[in-house]
Automatic annotation (TrEMBL):
Lineage: Bacteria, Bacillati, Actinomycetota, Actinomycetes, Mycobacteriales
Stretches assigned to the Solute-binding protein family domain: 86-410
Protein name: ABC transporter substrate-binding protein
Listed InterPro entries: Peptide/Ni-bd, SBP_5, SBP_5_dom, TAT_signal
Keyword check for Signal: yes
Keywords recorded for this protein, A-Z: Signal
SUPFAM superfamilies given in the database record: Periplasmic binding protein-like II
Protein species of origin: Nocardia jiangsuensis
PROSITE patterns: TAT
Length: 512
């Protein structure tokens, strides 16, 4: 079966005739909904892709398109609400014992696409695969708290998880990025079999994926008959495909693109505030950023407001080199960093880096990253540093940054601060881009997640954030909107932070 694909050449051909067509902004609300949802139709959604290396394996999902497909095909035990708190999904409820070391999960009545019922054995098998050290899967860092050998299926609809230590944040684990439930014994991820609202039909890596309504989904059948994911690495290609009628949904647009097309009537813009964290990652385990002085110099030369104004068109908040502004446990008491070029120059000299030329790896893999890298390079020159902006392969960028480059562009969707720490900052974290590894920091994390009292737990997280602010490798310069655009015929697209339950949630979308 052949399916249409969206390549840059075709998009740019459309652009010549579509340049005057503009976006109509809906100020975060999207198109006005129809009187009632309608069933039927195929929605075509275009995302930035990962080329021929992209995967359908939900446990290996990393890109936005992979995450969106995974949530269409599979379910997790929990997912994050728009307030970044866990919400039950396949788990109907969860209950800890007084010690916080055993958690009992009651499963919903759900079925896989092949008709098999969801069982406790499927949950245990899914988590065993994620925890397999040979797999090197992203969610492993979050699930590592589980003592799987001591966990058990009480019955087909009840799982009792034994934990290695008291862990008050265990619902975050159930909602962790990539922690999807697959059938016991399932190994063919080229033909997915999940409990999600859409069932698999066809897949061409780097090109398209076709899914169809799953009528027996536990949360109700989708309105759409079919959902097709198409790929285009360039933002201009995605918006031009929408303007040209090749797709009905375009993901990951920059604030500049949205703002420049505010006045038309062809499409609607859906904005989700405080949805994306923008930054740069310095690897603290290798030259030149193994020198704390140079990391601090970068913190002090970065003009965050200029970055927000130029890259996010002013539609965002400045960052303070800490993830999760506005989320639970975020420490607002830490003073906001401001530009101090004199101090930055002195630190550059102290680090022996005066006049140094440092590669800054970036990519078009996410909207605005190249622009942000260019702005930072301009700012660094005033402190005696030359940052050489190098564009990496957009299809492999996120995998490449794990081990390549001392300084890289970085961007993150939404997740709890605890999950950010577990997956990116602990010594054995699976997605530790900065290579931060501090035993005393890991010990504080163990204390935080074992502390039942919320105020005391918040103070431990504050201590950890003070360590990161002083010595860490992330330069979080801003928090901005997640922006998508849709055809006017599309209704039901929610304004929700990236990587939360209602983001890229197509089972509740319909077409006029």
């Amino acid at each position: 079966m052949q399916h249409p694909t969206l390549d840059r050449r075709r998009f740019l051909g459309i652009a010549a005739g579509a340049g005057a067509v503009a976006l109509a902004a809906a100020c975060g609300t999207g198109p006005e909904p129809a009187a009632a949802p309608r069933a039927g139709g195929r929605l075509r959604a275009v995302f930035a892709g990962g080329g021929a290396r992209e995967v359908l394996d939900p446990h290996r999902a990393n890109l936005f398109v992979e995450a969106a497909r995974a949530k269409a095909l599979y379910d997790k035990l929990a997912d994050l609400g728009s307030d970044v708190a866990p919400r039950p999904r396949l788990a109907e409820r969860w209950e800890p014992d007084p010690s916080l070391t055993r958690w009992r999960i009651t499963l919903r009545q759900a079925v896989f696409h092949d008709g098999r019922p969801l069982r406790a054995a499927d949950v245990l098998a899914s988590y065993a695969r994620i925890l397999d050290p040979a797999q090197a899967l992203r969610a492993r860092s979050s699930l590592a708290v589980i003592d799987l050998a001591a966990s058990r299926a009480v019955d087909d609809r009840t799982v009792e998880f034994a934990l290695r230590r008291p862990f008050v944040e265990f619902p975050n684990v159930l909602a962790a990025f990539g922690a999807y439930i697959v059938p016991e014994g399932h190994t063919d991820f080229d033909r997915p079999n999940g409990t999600g609202p859409f069932a698999f039909r066809a897949f061409e890596p780097g090109r398209s994926t076709l899914l169809a309504r799953f009528a027996d989904h536990w949360d109700g059948a989708p309105h759409l008959d079919e959902l097709e994911f198409l790929l285009a690495g360039e933002e201009s290609a995605r918006i031009n495909a929408l303007l040209g009628g090749q797709v009905e949904y375009a993901h990951d647009l920059s604030a500049t693109t949205a703002r420049s097309h505010e006045a038309g009537g062809r499409v609607a813009v859906v904005r989700s505030a405080n949805s994306l964290a923008h930054g740069f990652a310095m690897k603290v385990d290798r030259p030149p950023f193994d020198r704390r002085e140079l990391r601090e110099a970068l913190f002090l030369l970065a003009d965050r407001q200029q970055l927000v104004d130029s890259v996010l068109s002013g539609a965002g908040q400045v960052g303070n080199d800490l993830f999760g502004r506005g989320y639970q446990y975020y420490d607002d008491a830490i003073p906001q960093r401001t530009v101090d070029l004199d101090r930055a120059r002195a630190l550059v000299r102290a680090a022996g880096a005066d006049g140094a030329r440092i590669d800054l790896l970036t990519s078009t893999a996410s909207a605005g990253m190249v622009e942000a890298a260019t702005v930072l390079a301009d700012q660094a020159r005033a402190a005696g540093l030359t940052l050489n902006v190098v564009q990496g392969n957009k299809d492999t960028y996120w995998a490449d940054t794990l081990n390549t480059g001392a300084l890289t562009s970085f961007r993150s969707g939404t997740m709890p601060i605890e999950t950010h720490i577990a997956q990116r900052l602990l010594g054995g974290a699976s997605n530790n881009v900065t290579k931060w590894n501090r035993p005393e920091f890991d010990a504080l994390y163990d204390t935080a997640v074992a502390t039942a009292d919320p105020a005391a737990r918040t103070e431990v997280y504050a201590r950890m954030q003070r360590m990161l602010h002083s010595d860490g490798g992330y330069l979080w310069w801003g928090f901005g909107e997640s922006i998508v655009a849709t055809a006017r015929s599309v209704s039901g697209v929610a304004s929700a932070p990236a990587n939360t339950l209602d983001w890229a949630r197509f089972d509740k979308v319909w077409m006029a």
